[in-house]
Design brief:
Layout: H1 2-10, E1 29-35, H2 39-52, E2 57-60, E3 76-77, H3 84-104, E4 111-112, E5 115-119, H4 122-137, E6 142-145, H5 147-153, E7 169-173, E8 177-178, H6 181-194, E9 198-200, E10 205-211, E11 214-220, E12 223-232, H7 238-244, E13 252-261, E14 271-274, E15 279-283, E16 289-293, H8 307-320, E17 329-339, E18 346-348, E19 355-359, H9 369-382, H10 396-399
Parallel strand pairs: 1-2, 1-12, 2-9, 5-14, 12-19
Antiparallel strand pairs: 3-8, 4-8, 5-7, 6-7, 10-11, 11-12, 13-16, 13-17, 14-15, 15-16, 18-19
Helix pairs in contact: 2-6, 2-9, 3-9
Length: 413
Amino acid sequence: MPLGLLKYGFASKYPARRDIPAPKDLNKSYDVVIIGAGGHGLSTAYHLARYHGITNVAVLDKGYIGGGNTARNTAVVRSNYISPEAVAFYKASVELFKNLANELGYNQMYSQRGQLTLAHSDASVRTFTLRAEVNKHLGVRSEMVDRKQIREIVPCLNMGKNMRFPIQAGLWHRDGGTARHDSIAWGYAMRAAQMGVEIHQRTEVTGVNINAGKVTAIETNRGTIQCNHAIQAVAGMSSVVAKMAGIQLPIRSYPLQAMVTQPVKPFLDPLVSSAGLHAYVSQTARGEIVIGGGSDPYELYSTRSTLDLKESLIAHTLELFPFFAELKLLRQWAGITDMTPDYSPIMGESPVKNYWLDAGWGTWGFKATPISGKCMAETIAQEKTAAMIQPFHLDRFKTFKLSNEAGATAASH
């Protein structure tokens, strides 16, 4: 790497490296068509090409690479969930994150800093104790901490008894951390493209052709393409795209807003969240304070920011860190979350043969990016839902074998 930089620095010309090939016409057919060029879609394409030798793949997106929820999240990576199947799933994802920069040859800026989730009530303490025990049983580093330990982990946190909801205890998750969201998308896209995967931006899917209960083609604004398999990974637009295939998903979509402040010197290493106060906070490598919270209270397909959410997020954050009042807000944004009734994703088979689902991620899709792509690629290659994602099958809403993760959100929804 140093020698390469040296050669580049002394070169007479500086040609920009093109990570993604120039746009081209769509082929008439592909083995696999992936709808959505976000983290999950690109991760699936990469794993199909790298580990299953399936390179005749087209990734379609009506916008641009990583322009949806991949670019609109707060980049949190963690595995401190409740149900055994979810803990195992997200633990596997964290393990993949650790080596992702080496695998892709693309800096992911992964930083394992720990996450502290605050308990403000006896009920929260009981729930967190259960989570800690389930996590430890499955090899995830989580433990209960008292007020004294919380002061040691985050010395600048408001621990006063005059808080609206005084802090009683916390769940300390050592495996929690962050990664650079756009690097995840571009790393997968670059490596997938190098292996022959085609990535078509500004290509909107307008219809799904089905014959004898099987997907046969995908209609786009640039023409119709035949395919043997199709997978949708479109986050907040999951219900809309699924309806094109005649599938009704138990999903409701809500905007989810976040914001960052002006950069300041580093002082907050762990991630701090409070479902009771509807807020979570972290500091980026640039020094910005990232602030997120609960989703909007109404269904809407919109990524605009609002004054009322800004005010409520600021009010909740100031209860945890009163001295933030002196900081200036830098920017605010929103994504669209696709929420399922049990707060777990929908993955694998659909009622349409060879049309695969990667949906219902709500606010936890980014942290599942590597393992989701790995499992979905395995599912498509074997034409059978991978064992690890069997619990997230769509049919669980008919059999009532739910995977309830409502209590594991970083902020209440």
